Amino acid sequence: MILVTGAAGKTGQAVTRALVRVGASVRALVHKEEYQDSVESAGVSEIYLGDLLNLDDLQEIMEGVEAVYHICPNVHPGEVDIGVGVIQAAKEAGVEHFVYHSVLHPQIEAMPHHWLKLRVEEHLIESGLPFTILQPTAYMQNVAALIPKLLEGGVYRVPYPIETGISLVDLEDIAQAAAVVITEPDHKGATYELVGTGPITQTQVAAVLSEVLGKDIQAQRIPYKTWETQALKNGLGSYQRYALLKMFQNYKKFGFSGNSLVLGWLLGRQPTTLESCLRRELDKNFT
Predict the structure, then answer these.
(1) Could you give the CA distance from residue 236 to residue 232 in angstroms, rounded to a whole number?
(2) Residue 111: which residues within 8 A CB-CB, separation 6 or more?
(3) What kind and span of H or E run contains 156?
(4) Nearest Cα residue to 262 out of 201, 173, 188
(5) Domain boundaries, the chain
(6) What is the pTM of this model?
(7) Which fold is adopted by the domain 2-137+169-196+258-272?
(8) For residue range 22-73, what is the model confidence (pLDDT) as tens digits?
């Protein structure tokens, strides 16, 4: 049995589907009852309602688990406390393999939510558990989610310079790689960067969008204040807004790039291109 925490999110559902495709049994941990239907549709064997900050819940859901794929809620201020608790519960339960969904370049202290993931990595390494750490870059699906607005307005807006180069990765590639790491031997003790592309500027992203959507899309930088106002309307908390603004400022200074060779090796093929991912997402979700 493989436990997936954060199973209701887009990452958790993608990883669950990939595990089910290779014949694995998945126990999903979800925080709210209303998330159960979407998780069930991914093919899980068991669903547990629980709180990642509740040690009793963690001890209960670890019973009979052979491997854990741990995903913390996105940009969560309690990432370290959650990680420490999940790792400790897994250790007490005798879990044989702990896979942590971290982030590319967690060692950048100027990006607080990356830095917290590094603290969890440190704790995991020191725990004595057999582990694998996966470090994905920014998802192509974050771009794909904007397709309805882009079809309407034709402007791809980002809160950093449009010349900024950022490496991207397809979430479906991450999920496939996760299934490989969990279900095949010899990945324990490894840390893998999961990157699909070299650094792509935002003008290049807009050009790919134009090709895929058959519509002229222009990249435009928006002020931080404009982004923050919209984020507040969308319900992002103060820590999330703070951490993401720090990330955007770091992007402005340095970009965010990695290398795709490791992901290609894990997949046994070239990682998915941005164009291919966007065409698939357009066909699947917006047509």
Answers:
(1) 5
(2) 243, 246, 247, 250
(3) strand 155-158
(4) 173
(5) 2-137+169-196+258-272
(6) 0.95
(7) Rossmann fold (3.40.50)
(8) 999 999 999 888 778 888 888 888 999 999 999 999 999 999 999 999 999 9
